[in-house]
Design brief:
heterodimer, A: 157 residues, alpha/beta, Peroxisomal Thiolase, Chain A, domain 1, three-stranded parallel sheet, globular, B: 137 residues, mainly beta, 1 helix, 41% strand
Chain lengths: 157, 137
């Protein structure tokens, strides 16, 4: 018999930081803003949070694509968690949501803080020519088959 | 595209080296299974058809057809000449080998589906980037 884990879980609170280009506050500070707003919106306290999920996880490369991961936010808020997970090989941003659903359904935790932090518009004003590569940097991985062709935006399916 | 900004270049590894460098000799390299002749692209030394590990670069004719394409009108980075064409080209040897590329030597509005094309190479530093142009009979 199929069990629908998502029907036994719920999104109970949401939060969002200030959004800007050229932020005056750090990516972590903005993440804390959004997290505290979501926790309060859910009627919870920091001590109630026993899980964290994010996508795609910390990328400490200065690009701003995902500057904050589970560990940094857990430390900033002193969260005591039984489970956390952040990784890019999930079905997109929503992968963090479904990882959390799975963790809750499996009994690993009860209240998961799910977040996504982007800082690209700010990072682009400092070291990065675009949000993916530094100037002159070469592309690795599967996108290397597309990168040489000015593949900035195209549907090739 | 002689005035175009430098292309973002690929990191060349053991599997992709032939694809990005055989253009030095005017050849387009696509990995092929030595046991069953199936072409494997992107290249990896494993044949999904027959499980062979003997899959090596093979010089194909460089001819193919435009499977699909997009005409890009926005200049995403400074000095990027527009419009330009992004396409997927299927090689004539095997239709499921689809190579992302630009179509060159052709007005963007003249590109059509199934158009016969042939490879040309643009050298940038130590790589020879395969591009395709219409076959002129």
């Amino acid at each position: 018999m199929t069990r629908f884990a998502e029907k036994n879980t719920a999104i109970t609170g949401v939060g969002m930081s200030e959004v800007s280009r050229g932020a005056t506050r750090s990516a972590l500070a903005l993440t804390v803003d959004a997290a505290l707003e979501a926790i309060a919106d859910a009627g919870l306290n920091r001590a109630d949070i026993d899980g964290i999920a994010t996508w795609p996880g910390e990328r400490a490369d200065g690009s701003g694509f995902s500057p904050v991961g589970c560990a940094a936010l857990q430390d900033a808020l002193r969260l005591e968690v039984g489970w956390y997970g952040g990784g890019g090989e999930a079905p997109g941003q929503y992968g963090a949501v479904f990882n959390a659903i799975g963790a809750i359904a499996a009994g690993l935790c009860r209240n998961v803080l799910i977040f996504r932090t982007m800082y690209e518009a700010t990072a682009r004003k400092s070291s990065y020519a675009n949000s993916l590569l530094r100037e002159g940097q070469r592309q690795t991985g599967p996108f290397s088959w597309y990168a040489p062709y000015y593949t900035y935006a195209a549907a090739l399916h | 595209m002689t005035q175009a900004p430098v292309r973002i270049l690929p990191v060349v590894d053991r599997d992709s080296e032939a694809f990005w460098t055989w253009g030095r000799d005017g050849k387009l390299a696509v990995h092929r299974c030595a046991d069953c002749d199936y072409f494997v692209h992107p290249p990896v030394p494993f044949c999904p058809k027959c499980d062979s590990r003997d899959v090596v670069p093979h010089a194909v004719t460089g001819r193919g057809r435009v499977v699909t394409f997009t005409v890009n009108h926005k200049s995403w980075v400074p000095d990027l000449p527009v419009p330009y064409v992004l396409a997927l080209v299927a090689i004539e040897e095997q239709d499921d080998v689809r190579i992302p590329c630009n179509i060159v030597d052709c007005a963007p509005q003249d590109v059509i589906f199934d158009m016969p094309v042939e490879v040309v190479f643009e050298r940038v530093e130590d790589v020879w980037i395969p591009l395709f142009r219409p076959v002129h009979s």
